[in-house]
Amino acid sequence: MKNGKFIWADLSTYDTGSSTNFYKSVFGWELHNTEGYYLATIDEKSIAGIYETPSFFQKIKMPHFWMSYFQVESTAQAVERAKESVGIIEIENANFYEGNIALIRDPQGAGFTIYDGNQLDFGIADRSACVVSTELQVSDLSEVIPFYTSLFGWDLKRIDAYTYRVNTDHTHQITIRQVDNNTKGKYEYWVTTILVNDLTSTCNLIEKNGGLIISKEENRYMMTDDSQEAFFYIQKKR
């Protein structure tokens, strides 16, 4: 197993029926209900998950969100490293898909999940409608880079003054970017990216199904789904 590899993403939603219909309509995903956890597939390859937000998080009005998962050799050991580096542990060593997961928040509050099994992994790479990358958007790079390099041993390649990319041969890319709060809002978060053949037509389809445009860049748009809370990037396939 590759420590710190971006291997999976899933959506926490208050309405699985509405969410599964949205992603099926926009991206053509097939959704399979496995005891309340919906596996999204393309050509019978698992590419993402959708599940109902637990009641506790609904009570505190946590919004719909996409979660990024990273592989570790031992969840228990990674949790201890995270604690030593001032990480906040939300969920610790829960069983999930023949492995253990933990939900962790970095020193600035961005949440992510670690997993030490071998059943979760993107089945297709670099194909339209598949998750291809995740990006951490934070207010201060200096507060999070030591945390992630200690936790995962990432070798970070500097792209520019505000952007670092994990320097590995992983198909699914990992980026850390400093973004001003006036642009990203007050929260720190990981954002997944879904590859598309055409930005304009996909954007129109998302809006037709109840989603919104948050921002536009040259080769990608940040969008919400029909909850108007869970956001993600769509990126044009080159």
Could you characterize what this model shows?
- With 238 residues, this protein is of the alpha+beta class.
- The protein has two domains: 110 residues, 2,3-Dihydroxybiphenyl 1,2-Dioxygenase, domain 1; 106 residues, 2,3-Dihydroxybiphenyl 1,2-Dioxygenase, domain 1 (Roll).
- 22% of the residues lie in helices and 42% in strands.
- The protein contains six helices and 16 strands.
- The strands form two sheets. Strands 2-3-4-1-5-8-7-6 form an eight-stranded mixed β-sheet, with helices on one face. Strands 10-11-12-9-13-16-15-14 form an eight-stranded mixed β-sheet, covered by helices on one side.
- The longest helix has 12 residues.
- The two termini are 29 Å apart.
What labels would you give this structure?
single chain, 238 residues, alpha+beta, 2,3-Dihydroxybiphenyl 1,2-Dioxygenase, domain 1, 6 helices, globular
